[in-house]
Design goal:
This protein is α+β, with helices and mostly antiparallel strands. The protein folds into two domains: about 35-100, Winged helix-like DNA-binding domain superfamily/Winged helix DNA-binding domain (Arc Repressor Mutant, subunit A), CATH 1.10.10.10; about 110-260, GAF domain (Beta-Lactamase). It is about 40% helix and about 20% strand. It contains seven helices and eleven strands. It has helices at about 35-55, 60-70, 70-85, 100-130, 170-180, 190-195, 240-260, and strands at about 5, 10, 90, 95-100, 135-140, 145-150, 155-160, 165, 200, 210-215, 220-230. The strands form three sheets. The chain has a six-stranded antiparallel β-sheet with strand order 8-6-5-11-10-9, sandwiched between helices. It has a three-stranded mixed β-sheet with strand order 1-2-7, with no helix packed on it. Strands 3-4 form a two-stranded antiparallel sheet. Helix 1 packs across helix 3. The longest helix has about 30 residues, at about 100-130.
């Protein structure tokens, strides 16, 4: 479904086409559990973790059963799976507490939150200078996560919210992340890396164009990508040099600030 503009002129995307339809299961491979059953188990595990967090201290199986109202057998199965996955640990006294994976995830979240706080003032400067929306994205597996965002002051604008997960292979920010996260980028990504910036026109959304540059730390490690995006009728090829200059100036200021 093509993107459309809402009454405020903000570009929004419709639902994409379904994927994976008609794929046959290879012979001899047992069918997995129904998707609904898997999602129910995940939801139950999340509820169990939430219950433990609300208790604010390590808890025994009986305490968690009482707090959740779930059967003892299924609760134990979920707890065992969470322990094996590193989300929980079980002490010698039988009490369950957060596991090492939770600590690593919390550390990552704290690091991302701190980075977003330092980036937002520069994004505001970019939005004022270009009058387009400015964002900062980080790689999140096979996707990119929009960690920080400042909207354009214009009524017609590219509208995305912080926390959005977007395709890594579509759009300027994703290209910048891919080009600078690989030791030897290939094809078009090699060109992006050589010139130091990426531009896209209608790649993620047919009505949106964007320009992006990578943000590296002092050791050359990729931190994320700064981007400016807007309606394709405004962010045109002849504006790219000026937008690149604004992005590079913001990137350099951020690099100096983060190096302190």
């Amino acid at each position: 479904m093509p993107a459309r503009a809402d009454r405020r002129g903000e570009t929004r995307r419709g639902a994409g086409p379904a994927t994976g339809a008609g794929l046959a299961r290879p012979r001899g491979r047992p069918a997995g559990p129904p998707a609904g059953a898997s999602m129910t188990s995940i939801a139950a595990a999340c509820a169990l973790l939430d219950t433990l967090a609300a208790l604010r201290e390590p808890a025994r199986l009986t305490e968690l059963v009482q707090a959740t109202g779930r059967p003892k057998s299924s609760t134990l199965r979920l707890l065992t799976s969470l322990v094996h996955g590193g989300l929980l640990t079980r002490g010698p006294d039988g009490r369950f507490s957060p596991g090492p994976l939770v600590t690593r995830l919390a550390t990552l979240r704290h690091s991302w939150d701190a980075l977003a706080r330092r980036v937002r003032p520069e994004l505001a400067r970019l939005a004022r200078r270009t009058r387009e929306s400015a964002g900062f994205s980080v790689r999140d597996g096979a996707a990119r996560l929009l960690l920080a965002r400042v909207h354009s002051p214009e009524s017609v604008r590219d509208h995305l919210e912080e926390g959005a997960r977007l395709p890594l292979t579509r759009g300027a920010a994703g290209e910048a992340l891919l080009a600078f996260d690989a030791d030897r980028p290939r094809g078009h990504l090699r060109e992006v890396r050589a010139r130091g910036w990426a531009a896209s026109f209608g790649a993620r959304d047919p009505n949106v164009a964007a320009v992006a540059v990578p943000l590296l730390d002092r050791g050359g490690r990729l931190l994320g990508a700064l981007s400016v995006s807007g309606p394709i009728t405004r962010v045109t090829a002849d504006r790219v040099p000026a937008i690149v200059a604004a992005l590079e100036a913001s990137r350099d200021r951020l690099a100096r600030d983060l190096a302190r």
